[in-house]
Specification:
The complex is a heterotrimer. A two-stranded antiparallel ribbon of chain A has the order 1-2. Chain A has 18 helices and 2 strands. The longest helix of chain A is centred in the N-terminal third of the chain and has 23 residues. Chain A folds into 2 domains: 164 residues, no CATH class; 158 residues, no CATH class. In chain A, helix 2 runs antiparallel to helix 13. Chain B folds into 4 domains: 41 residues, no CATH class; 264 residues, NADH-ubiquinone oxidoreductase 51kDa subunit (Rossmann fold), CATH 3.40.50.11540; 122 residues, no CATH class; 78 residues, no CATH class. By secondary structure, chain B is of the alpha/beta class. Helix content of chain B is 43%, strand content 12%. Chain C is mostly helical. Among the domains of chain C are: 54 residues, Electron transport complex subunit B, putative Fe-S cluster (3-methyladenine DNA Glycosylase II, Chain A, domain 3, Orthogonal Bundle); 59 residues, 2-Layer Sandwich (Alpha-Beta Plaits), CATH 3.30.70.20. Chain C contains 7 helices and 4 strands. The longest helix of chain C has 26 residues. The chains are: A mainly alpha, B alpha/beta, C mainly alpha. Chains in contact: A-B, A-C, B-C.
């Protein structure tokens, strides 16, 4: 029985949560493609593993929570969560990394709080933080780009390596290494100047004078631009985040170029663009007022820079996002926009 | 101005690429761009002169108090005749839309979201349409604002844009208080074209009405705002006001441009302060149909008996506009539009954004019905959890934070919702329109608002009850004091006389003291005391025979018989009370005169009364089972 | 020497904070409502006397003094009981038998054909909501009636009924979409 007392409006612009989530998934494709081209097929295997885990976890959790499974799985929010996570972990890391990370993200990041819409923390970043703390060694061994390693794994080699840990005919060290962020950080700690570190051989530039990481970041930027255009995400997130991070980098680089890497390094390495357009833009766990979004994003930018330079981890996105997630209610409260006809 | 023109052009060029760029074209925040479907009802010419089989005229077609009927059942009325006069205060009279016979004065279902029935006058037209000319007795146009307002009130004119606020109450009592008159021809709701049609067909009458109002109240600035998706109406209106001071302004096509606050902000750049009326800041806004009604009242002495209505919707073969008589049933008008399928779904009064879904399709056109919409039901998307995407906040024309309001409204945290300016919400529906989770946000706000209103009213009632109770206590106390004082004075006088002593003043003193001590001991609440005890006694009786206390079905006999029967019953009950009451074996009257029971006893009695009541209820429930 | 410095510093600090706290206590003093007042505000003010006290205020005063149970207010029902229990910081007690849920608001209606004008109900009404005079028909001021039912037992001809107030479009409330959706399921 449907109540006749349904209120206006009786029209809708036909948007839906599914469409929003699929937009995000679509926008992640350029980056996925770039990833495959530059780092091999590992990411595809990881993605399938993550999706399989997500489906299983969603099913079990929804059953346990006594909620209808189909409508809740088809909101595709879990898909976006695990996609975000997949981009964060090294492509050749063993299978249990992504499986445990995805499961943790969905169970502890989403379902235990009451499902989509009720989670105070970004689930993907919660899963990533869990992995960073639990498996620090695995998480910093990133696959080297083809040009540097001089060798790339085929699909089956990646498959065997991820699932069975079988190394084909080369030691793992020959195709993985520290991420540039952590390499530069260690270098600076050992007294090598930032500029010298950036000229190190493993940061060899590829096409158009850009490194592999640079390309990945640009691919994320392209996807992000699409998201802004389709109004799936708000401009305040990337502007606030990249602005704050860039500004911090510029200030400190101007003070001491030897100790602090330039702006371009911070914007084009690590998960900067991934965070700017795909991670911090998760609406559920972020601020909702226009000014609040800007403050939230800028806060993450500042924290990311701080953690990258002075923290214990090479990249600080996960922790920065989680910290700002806590601050969201406060930010929302103090950034209420002026309502028509009110004087502040 | 030039930069604005350039910007407009730029946005227009960009808008096919990025539709939301259109939000830069107007001054207020938010707004949405629904599919308008306005062309549907403009294909057919305007219909006129349709007289239905029955006219249902609700006594309340406006905000405020219902009108009071002044005709009798079976009476013949003529067109324009007054059939219900305005109540004192905020109200509006009702006139007969055509000649005919009053066949009923009874509750009928109203075109209201509640689907409740309210008193209506039902007229059966005789088809002659014979009218009384100049029923409002206007020989010369009114000269003073008071006379003008009285005429508007007598004509039964209310805001015809949708709210139905009696128009006379919008106007000031003296000229010179109003700076701007804004004529609302925006008509921003999808499907609706009745204002468009009116502007195309009768622009001169609208302008005439505006000029009358402007002259009477000395309004220097008159501006008419029309959305730029009505080029024909704009052209017609421009021609009609070519040699007057009235300016016609094209405004961007966006929903809700026709909202009062939004249109004022757009046209004048002024924000109406929250909680204030536009008149407080020297602005009057009137719908074009209202102005036409004013012109008719002043020039022809005709009250408001008909209005332009759009009959449209995706379920109709031939949507059209009609100059419909008030009281015409919706289902008759819909039948004229050749429905594609039988109308077995609820119609909507008004547009799809702010309209009202009707519980019953046989409801009349009232002064505020601008559109009847027949859209076949579509599968409803089940609401999902809010993902705080902020689309609603971007769309809100008031710049509220609908997602946060929703959070508090659904948790019934009304105080918080009020802090987030719940009552500034105009229920335009933009937030629900864009919500990807398909949450019925507006309904949450409407529910929250009605809850808050009820809580406020309840608090007021409670406070009132408390005050009345305290006043009563004080009065009883005062009466007692006065009585005691009199008694004491009398006693003193008697004593004085009896003693026949010379020390009269000294005897008066102790007498007064006794009076005071008497007062403290005297029973304070004899009537209430008795009531409480009787309640207890009744419950005892009820325990034995629960059916006796049930409010019995009173037979439809003559009142004398009823009274006799009641007396008999009362006697019987009194006997029962006598037999079964435990604490008080006496008649209630004697009881009240007896010295009162101690507080302890009182409480015991009351406790027992409560218990007895509970037992009685149980017994009743069991018998009901 | 350093010990002395430490003592002095802490002495100074404690002095400063003490002054600060003292100032705050004076400056931001909250005028506490007497408990009876607070309880009175929670009570439904029907003045029905079902608690055994002659009105809501006496009951509130008795509660404040600790002389009454928290579960006596029948019209307020369980919600009021819980509020009072919380306010007085005592254990909530179950309501007696009936009225665990507040009743829908009802008002008394005098059947004017039957009324004999005895003024008994007028005397019983705790809020003076009944008007009339001896041998004249009485009537209930609907707006003022609290629905306490005290007038019903005193009526010698049983001409008073409790009736529900019919909703009008003005008093009609939009239903809660959430509960509506739940009931639809």
């Amino acid at each position: 029985m449907k109540s006749i007392y349904t209120s206006s409006p009786f029209a809708h612009n036909n948007s839906s949560v599914q469409k929003v989530m699929l937009q995000v998934q679509l926008a992640a494709f350029p980056a996925l493609l770039a990833h495959i081209l530059l780092f091999g097929y590992g990411i595809i295997i990881q993605w399938f593993l993550a999706v399989a885990t997500a489906l299983l976890v969603e099913y079990v959790m929804l059953k346990l929570r006594d909620k209808p499974v189909l409508p809740n799985v088809t909101d595709f929010s879990a898909l976006i969560t695990v996609t975000g996570l997949v981009f964060c972990i090294p492509p050749e890391s063993p299978w249990w990394v992504i499986v445990s990370g995805s499961a943790f993200a969905l169970v502890f990041g989403k379902h235990l709080y009451g499902g989509l819409g009720y989670n105070p923390f970004n689930p993907a970043m919660l899963g990533y933080a869990f992995l960073l703390i639990s498996f620090p060694a695995e998480m910093t061994q990133w696959t080297l780009p083809k040009e540097i390693a001089g060798y790339s794994l085929s699909f089956w080699e990646s498959f065997n390596h991820i699932l069975f840990g079988a190394v084909a005919h080369a030691p793992i060290d020959s195709f993985t290494g520290a991420t540039p962020l952590s390499a530069v950080k260690t270098g600076i700690q050992e007294g090598v100047s930032a500029q010298q570190m950036l000229q190190a051989p493993y940061l060899e530039t590829g096409w158009w004078n850009l490194t592999a990481w640079g390309w990945i970041n640009l691919a994320f930027l392209a996807g992000g631009a699409w998201l802004i255009y389709t109004r799936t995400i708000r401009w305040q997130y990337p502007v606030g985040f990249l602005g704050a991070l860039g500004l911090m980098a510029w200030i400190f680089h101007s003070i001491n170029p030897d100790l602090y890497a330039p702006v371009s390094f911070h914007l084009l390495f690590g998960g900067t663009m991934l965070a700017a357009f795909f991670i911090i833009t998760d609406p559920v766990s972020s601020s909702t007022t226009p000014l609040g979004r800007l403050i939230y994003a800028a806060g993450i930018g500042v924290l990311v820079y701080v953690i990258r330079n002075w923290g214990a981890f090479p990249d600080g996105i996960a922790f920065a996002v989680l910290l700002l997630n806590i601050a969201v209610p406060l930010i929302d409260r103090y950034t209420q926009p002026r309502v028509l006809g009110h004087n502040r | 101005m030039k930069t604005r023109g350039f910007l407009t052009q730029l946005v227009k060029t960009l808008s096919p690429l990025y539709p939301m760029a259109k939000r830069l074209l107007y001054r207020f925040h938010g707004g949405v761009f629904p599919k308008y479907n306005k062309e549907l009802s403009l294909r057919q010419p305007l219909r006129e002169g349709y007289i239905p089989k029955q006219l249902i005229l609700p006594l309340q077609q406006h905000m405020g108090l219902p009108a009071l009927p002044c005709v009798e059942l079976g009476e013949s009325v003529k067109k324009f005749q007054l059939i219900a006069q305005a109540a004192k205060g905020l109200s509006a009279p009702v006139h007969a839309p055509t000649s005919g016979k009053i066949i009923a004065i009874e509750p009928r279902v109203l075109p209201h979201a509640s689907g409740l029935a309210q008193p209506c006058i039902v007229i059966e037209p005789d088809g002659l349409d014979s009218a009384i000319t100049n029923v409002l007795a206007v020989n010369t146009p009114p000269q003073t604002p008071e006379a003008f307002k009285q005429l508007i009130l007598n004509a039964g004119i209310v805001g015809m844009g949708g709210a139905g606020f009696p128009t006379f109450a919008k106007l000031p009592n003296q000229p010179g208080l109003v700076e701007h008159l804004v004529i609302n021809g925006a008509e921003c709701e999808p499907f609706i074209t009745c204002d468009d049609m009116l502007m195309q067909t009768h622009p001169d009458e609208i302008i005439r009405g505006a000029q009358l109002v402007a002259q009477m109240f000395g309004i220097p600035h008159v501006v008419c705002a029309i959305e730029n998706n009505k080029p024909k109406a704009i052209e017609a209106m421009r021609q009609a006001c070519a040699d007057s001071q009235i300016t016609i302004t094209e405004v961007a096509t966006v929903y809700p441009m026709g909202g009062q606050k939004q249109l004022i902000q757009e046209v004048l750049g002024i924000e109406v302060p929250s909680g204030k009326h536009t008149i407080d800041i020297g602005i009057v806004m009137m719908n074009i149909a209202t102005l036409r009604a004013i012109a008719h009242a002043v020039d022809k002495g005709q009250p408001l008996v008909s209005r332009f209505v759009t009959v449209s919707g995706l379920g109709l073969e031939q949507p059209y506009n009609i100059n419909a008589l008030l009281g015409t049933p919706f289902d008759e008008l819909i039948a004229l539009a050749k429905p594609k399928q039988p109308i077995d779904y609820p119609l909507i009064m008004g547009g799809p954004m702010m309209g009202v879904k009707l519980a019953d399709n046989h409801v009349p056109v009232v002064k505020t019905s601008n559109c009847i919409l027949a859209n076949p039901p579509e599968p409803v998307q089940a609401p999902m959890a809010c993902i705080r995407c902020g689309e609603c906040a971007d769309a809100c024309p008031i710049n509220l934070q609908p997602q946060q309001l929703y959070w508090h409204a659904q948790a019934h945290e009304y105080e918080q919702a009020e802090k987030l300016n719940l009552f500034d919400c105009i229920e335009c529906g933009c937030c629900s329109f864009v919500c990807p989770s398909h949450i019925p946000l507006v309904q949450y706000y409407r529910h929250a608002k009605s809850e808050v209103r009820e809580i406020r009213a309840q608090a007021q009632l409670t406070e009132q009850a408390k005050q009345r109770h305290e006043a009563r206590q004080a009065r009883i106390e005062r009466d007692k004091q006065e009585r005691d004082a009199k008694l004491a004075a009398k006693k003193a006088a008697v004593k004085q006389q009896a003693a026949q002593d010379t020390q009269d003043k000294k005897t008066a003193q102790p007498a007064h003291q006794t009076a005071e001590s008497n007062r403290e001991d005297a029973p304070k609440l004899s009537a209430r005391e008795r009531a409480i005890q009787m309640a207890k006694a009744r419950q005892q009786a009820a325990k034995a025979s629960p059916e006796q206390t049930q409010p019995a079905e009173k037979p439809a006999a003559a009142s004398d018989d009823k009274r006799k029967a009641a007396m008999e019953a009362a006697k019987a009950r009194a006997a029962a009370k006598k037999a079964q009451a435990e604490l008080s074996t006496d008649q209630p009257k004697q009881e009240s005169e007896k010295p009162e029971l101690s507080v302890e006893d009182k409480r015991k009695a009351a406790m027992e009364a409560a218990k007895a009541r509970a037992a009685a209820k149980k017994a009743q429930q069991e018998t009901a089972k | 020497m350093s010990a002395l410095a430490g003592i002095l510093i802490f002495l100074g600090l404690s002095l400063a904070f003490g002054l600060l706290l003292g100032y705050a206590a004076v400056r931001f003093k909250v005028e506490g409502d007497p408990v009876a007042e607070l309880i009175d505000k929670k009570l439904p003010q029907t003045q029905c006397g079902q608690c055994g006290y002659p009105g809501c205020k006496p009951y509130a005063e008795a509660l404040a003094k600790g002389e009454a149970e928290v579960n006596l207010c029948i019209p307020g029902g369980e919600p009021t009981m819980l509020e009072i229990a919380e306010l007085l910081q005592v254990e909530p007690k179950p309501m007696q038998a009936e009225a665990t849920e507040p009743k829908p608001p009802m008002v008394a209606l005098i059947n004017e054909d039957l009324c004999i004008g005895c003024v008994l109900c007028i005397k019983a009404c705790p809020v003076d909501a009944i008007v009339g005079a001896t041998k004249m028909m009485h009537t209930v001021i609907k707006k003022e009636c609290t629905g306490c039912e005290l007038c019903i037992p005193v009526c010698p001809v049983d001409c008073i009924d409790m009736v529900f107030e019919q909703p009008t479009p003005q008093t009609w409330k939009w239903p809660d979409p959430k509960s509506a959706a739940e009931s639809a399921q």
